[in-house]
Amino acid sequence: MRYWGNAHGLVDAGADIIEWRVDHFAQVREMAQVMAALAEIRGALKALPLLFTFRSKKEGGETELSDEAYFALNREAARSGLVDVIDIELFNDEAQIRSLVDDAHAAGVKVIMSNHDFHKTPAQEDIIYRLRRMQDLGADLPKIAVMPQSPQDVLTLLAATLTMKEKYATRPLITMSMGKSGGVSRVTGRLFGSAMTFGTVGQASAPGQIAIAKLREVMDILS
């Protein structure tokens, strides 16, 4: 079946964790269909960790959901026993975020809390503030992705990552600079404190993502 085939290819590519971008799923508004597809993917991945992500339109996603539907979808995924990690976007209602984080943790599911800026790179202090805010809200892995307008912006992201890692982080964090000019952050981010990077098999879901085989090759050279 379609989902099994896609997942099987990702396993063969040697990924450490698989992200399902459910906002690209045509039947995302039908909970039963989402859960059926999720069960199929889980079966194909076997023990490989699965990250469940609905990326909202405002943060670069494919589809828009109401706030109520967004939280219901993530809560159902977390409680399903089929996923290992869910992604919760930072810029949502605080009470809703805290409730969903609690439900995910009660189900044994980790939380990536994320923010994506497709227009600019915020100031270093703002990047650090957002990452610290994610920690305060209970994220297991704070994540931020920003768009550079200059090489200096890439350095700003990397400097913020290093400062966060050395001074404030109480858990792993994920950072990246997007687009072609930000690609260097995807392969060197771990040298500055980023715990994870995102590669592709086939079509990219964010600007600047690198094919997993090339990503591993470059990271092996730098390690």
TrEMBL record:
Active site: H116 (proton donor/acceptor), K143 (schiff-base intermediate with substrate)
Matching Gene3D superfamilies: Aldolase class I
This enzyme's EC code(s): 4.2.1.10
Pathway: Metabolic intermediate biosynthesis; chorismate biosynthesis; chorismate from D-erythrose 4-phosphate and phosphoenolpyruvate: step 3/7
Keyword Amino-acid biosynthesis among record annotations: yes
Any one GO MF annotation of this record: 3-dehydroquinate dehydratase activity
Keywords (A to Z) from UniProt: Amino-acid biosynthesis, Aromatic amino acid biosynthesis, Lyase, Schiff base
Binding annotation for 3-dehydroquinate: E19, W20, R21, R55, R186, S205, Q209
Alphabetized SUPFAM superfamilies for the sequence: Aldolase
A GO biological-process term: 3,4-dihydroxybenzoate biosynthetic process
Pfam families, alphabetized: DHquinase_I
Reaction catalyzed: 3-dehydroquinate = 3-dehydroshikimate + H2O
Function statement: Involved in the third step of the chorismate pathway, which leads to the biosynthesis of aromatic amino acids. Catalyzes the cis-dehydration of 3-dehydroquinate (DHQ) and introduces the first double bond of the aromatic ring to yield 3-dehydroshikimate.
Name of the protein described by the UniProt record: 3-dehydroquinate dehydratase
UniProt organism field: Klebsiella pneumoniae
